[in-house]
Amino acid sequence: MIAGEAVSAPLHTPPAPAHCPERPVGPLFIGLFAAAYCGVYIALVTPVTVTLAVKAQQIAPQDKQATLSLALGIGSVLAILGNPLIGRLSDRTTSRFGMRRPWLVGGLVGGLAGLLICAMTRDVTTLVVGWCLTQLSFNAVLAALIAVLPDRIPERQRGSVSGVLGLCLSVALVVGSFLAQAVSSSVVLMFMVPASVGALTVLALVAVLRDRRLTQRPPYGVRELARSYWVNPRRHPDFGWAWLSRCLMFMGTSVLSAYKTFYLSDHLGYSLAQVPRLVFWALLTQTVVTVVSSQLSGWLSDRLKRRKPFVVWAAVLYGLGLLVISLADSFSLFLVGMAITGIGFGTYLSVDLALVTDVLPSRATAGRDLGVFNIATALPQSLAPTLAPAVLAIGGGDNYALLFLLAALCAVAGAAVLQPVRAVR
């Protein structure tokens, strides 16, 4: 699933297989694994950050916000529902080609077809259908990809490999926006060039993957399906508060991810031809700061043995960055806001997952519980685009200042609701 920057979601590690791998993997496999993970995100997040907004403005200039909101909202619902379900189906696949490979290849084909539909269409309905196919298909790829981690990576290497994968989304945002602005003269190429990078990287991994083969399907009924989507917050309040904090924080990130393109064109007055280049520089600024702050804050959190203060102040900083963006009257001030959000986002991502790991209901169900936690990342990608048009319409339309102000308040609220957590300092 994607979290815009959100598509930026915490890493969901499924439960380890019955026979955990013991043989270490080499740098070639790790490189191809990380490249495939990054490539899928390049194909998936580039439309969210740039291309879908450009396409919406091209085919429905009078209703571009509503068109973008419709596509992102429905697509996010499919991501929420599809990722855990497809992950479980992957666990039960008995194909002679392996458990993960059919979903990697099949999802890739579906994702490319969906992006091609988005690129070629001239009407809103087909755009939404194409994006829904893209989301569902690429989430199948992501679900199968992340399952490769416990399948092939021994426990002693998982920390370092997970660290590499954690940087992939930030890298994908910059690479995708660079590719989009490099071919900005053609909307079709803006969709398909990043998609081609994803296809090549996934196929390279498929070619070398020693996939697991399953001979007998484990049981999977209605009860097991329902448990994929729920952890009781009354029985596990610390986990519930952490879940709500992540959801509120990502309401803010989803607004910035989806609407910065329109903000630059409608609010700051840049032309559609200029926007892809400006988005690239904005994301590059944010990503550099995110990487630096995540490494520093993660190290400090471990040294000080404290989690909550880092997560709380990270959410506050992100809200401050959104406030600066809401007041921006130039691209320079917009960049300042993006840099501040980068500090907050990097700190939040590096420490929040550690905090959540500390408050998991049970180590025995860690994979399922982290899957539920991932919903807190994906759900705002559906809610934010659904609510945003009503906010933008206040005061005559295009009220981006209010939209980003409310997004800032959501991020700050995400900091506030962490206060009841007791199990973590």
From TrEMBL:
Membrane topology: Multi-pass membrane protein
Keywords, sorted A to Z: Membrane, Transmembrane, Transmembrane helix
Primary location class: membrane
All copies of domain Major facilitator superfamily (MFS) profile, residue ranges: 27-425
UniProt keyword Membrane, yes or no: yes
Pfam family, one: MFS_1
Entry's localization field: Cell membrane
Membrane-spanning residues: 28-54, 66-82, 103-122, 128-149, 161-180, 186-209, 239-259, 279-298, 310-328, 334-360, 372-394, 400-418
Protein's name in the database: MFS transporter
